Fold:
Amino acid sequence: MNYRFVTSINKNEYDAFVQSSPYVNLLQSYDWALIKHNWKHIHTGVYKDEKLVGAGLVLIKELPLKMSMFYIPRGPILKRPYLKF
Structure:
């Protein structure tokens, strides 16, 4: 079992994964980052044996005093088997 975390994911692959989830939310769509134009963003993914099993849009807001806030609205999105604890 080999996991790999990426901070840049292809738009088509990201949207296909998010839209296939029963937990899909508009706030996790690839293009939501365009609406939040005053925030920086990262489209992240987690691969297990080269298969995408998790994804999330991370929004980054610059704050005073050289601080930042990271926010994953209604996410991340995970494949169902990985939701069990």
Remarks:
- The chain has two helices and five strands.
